[in-house]
Amino acid sequence: MDFIYKIPTHMDFEGQARAERLYRVVITLFAIVGLVWGYIIQQFSQTVYILGAGFALAALLTMPPWPLYRKKSLNWQKPKGENDSVSEGAKKKKKN
What we know:
- The chain has helices at about 1-5, 15-40, 45-60, 80-95.
- Helix 2 runs antiparallel to helix 3.
- By secondary structure, it is mainly α.
């Protein structure tokens, strides 16, 4: 059961932008191809199927946090201890 907790679930900000751009490109391309193909064969259902395949592909490419989307992680500050925040609050009260 530990292997589930080891799966990375984060995505950096640039990765989020890259994923959104890829999602838009895939959906747009599949929509155009589906519309053209549906018009050629006069079947709107084919347009819907092709667009559905585009949604599935875009979801597969963008929803999981692939390493492509985790290249530039943020360096977070270390959390302050409880004593640090209490002492700062006490110092501010004493000054007032």
